[in-house]
Design a protein that fits this description.
Layout (H helix, E strand, L loop, with lengths): L9 E4 L2 E7 L9 H11 L5 H11 L3 H10 L6 E7 L5 E6 L4 E6 L21 H13 L6 H9 L13 E3 L4 E3 L1
Antiparallel strand pairs: 1-2, 2-3, 3-4, 4-5, 6-7
Helix pairs in contact: 2-3, 4-5
Length: about 180
């Protein structure tokens, strides 16, 4: 948490973990956006960090968390990284205010999902995005470990001047490292 914020940026429960990343879609660059966010609070929309807090309080399972993170109205766009305990329980939920803009989920063919503050599905994949994807592909599904993943998170350009912190959470192994 950060002082002055009512909510949680990263959380872990026995059944799942959640983390949030900032999202600024290319069509949302006006300084008026902040005023819109504040006005939406009065319209009943939740602050993004409150969505995480409520999800951690209300849900015990990945499926419940997934449903809340994709359905709650919120004041601003964001990226949610959601991980569960079972095979293929993992998703990057790219949110607009009223619902998902895009969702990448783990599957038999998609062994990882990553989020580097880009709407990558639109064709935008910055140096940070490319580095993470190239590093994961080079290591491969069969050779990935928490230590190797941590090394990717700590190296530039993944960890750069805009990084505030990074967290590695493996809910099924009760592993949490900031």
């Amino acid at each position: 948490m950060y002082a002055g914020l009512n909510g949680v940026t990263t959380g872990w429960r026995e059944g799942f973990s959640i983390s949030i990343n900032n999202r600024r879609p290319s069509n949302r660059t006006s300084p008026i956006d902040l005023m819109e966010n504040i006005s939406l609070i009065f319209g009943g929309f939740k602050q993004n960090l409150k969505v995480i807090r409520d999800t951690l309080e209300a849900c015990e399972t990945y499926d419940c968390a997934y449903k809340m993170l994709t359905s709650e109205y919120q004041i601003a766009p964001s990226y949610y990284a959601l991980a569960g305990n079972s095979t293929y329980q993992g998703a990057i939920i790219t949110r607009d205010r009223l619902g998902p803009a895009h969702i990448d989920s783990l599957s038999k063919d998609n062994w990882y999902v990553s989020q580097t503050n880009d709407d990558h599905w639109t064709g935008i994949c910055t140096i940070r995005c490319s580095y993470v994807k190239d590093s994961l592909n080079q290591i491969g599904r069969e050779n990935i470990t928490a230590e190797k993943l941590r090394n990717i998170l700590l190296q530039w350009p993944s960890n750069n001047q805009h990084s505030i912190y990074n967290t590695l959470i493996v809910p099924g192994q009760s592993f949490f490292e900031v």
